[in-house]
Amino acid sequence: MNSVEPLSWPEIRTVLLDMDGTMLDLHFDDVFFRQTVPGAYARKHGLTFEAARDVVLESYQEQQGTLAWYDLDHWSSRLGMDMRRLKEEVAHLIRVHPHVLPFLQAVRESGRAIHLVTNAHPYSLDMKLVRTPIGACLDSVITSHEVGWAKEQAPFWPALTARLGLDPRTTLLVDDSAPVLAAARAFGIAHLRQVLHPNSGAPPNPVGQFPSIVDFRDLGLPS
């Protein structure tokens, strides 16, 4: 059962939105990292898909939660493959989640600031902004690569706050990652929502420690 809690919109002046798994379907990224990359690695090294997947997933785990995990150039060097080219092979899977665009428009019309805050590598970000209409509704787009820390890491949040002039007490963060939400909560971001169905190709995640939504309809529309 989803633990939907109504947002107190009068208390919210700034909306921070994650991209992958939150506004965009995580199916693209899961296919890329779990199928496309291991498949290419298997062909390169003459391995079975299963053996290549084990090598690649172990490499991922070593960097999880750090900026390097999200860095396509790091993985191109580490795995000896052109990760940018491989991403283009599955770019047709990039999709906006249902109900996201009406929400973005309503936030804009309400006069609140709205920012995309993502761990995505700049190349991945550009791919997705070109192929989707979400960018037209945003006041700014900020990547953790610009800030110098992944969103899971504590220094990210004071750096972001200084950059945007945020008041954590009147800020909403919507993200599918519990570690990211935990870091934001520790810093003092007051309004948090976790997306439970980041990947349309998989079942929803179980309810965790944060107030959660299945899709953007659960956020309501600000007035």
Molecular structure report:
The protein is of the alpha/beta class and 223 residues long. The chain has 2 domains: 9-25 and 95-219, HAD superfamily/HAD-like (Rossmann fold, 3-Layer(aba) Sandwich); 28-92. The chain contains 9 helices and 6 strands. The chain has helices spanning 27-45, 49-63, 72-79, 83-89, 100-110, 122-131, 144-147, 156-164, 178-187, and strands spanning 14-17, 113-118, 140-143, 171-175, 191-195, 212-213. α1 (27-45) packs across α2 and α1 packs across α4. It starts with 13 loop residues before the first strand and ends in a 10-residue tail after the last strand.
By CATH, the superfamily of the largest domain comes out as: HAD superfamily/HAD-like
Question: Which regions have little confidence, pLDDT < 50, spanning 5+ residues?
Answer: none
Which architecture name of the largest domain does CATH use?
Answer: 3-Layer(aba) Sandwich
Helix tally equals: 9
* Assembly type: single chain
Annotation, overall tally of beta strands: 6
What percentage of residues falls in helices of 4 or more residues? 40-55%
Radius of gyration: 18 Å
Side by side, the strands of the main sheet go: 3-2-1-4-5-6
Q: How far is it from the N-terminal to the C-terminal residue, by CA?
A: 27 Å
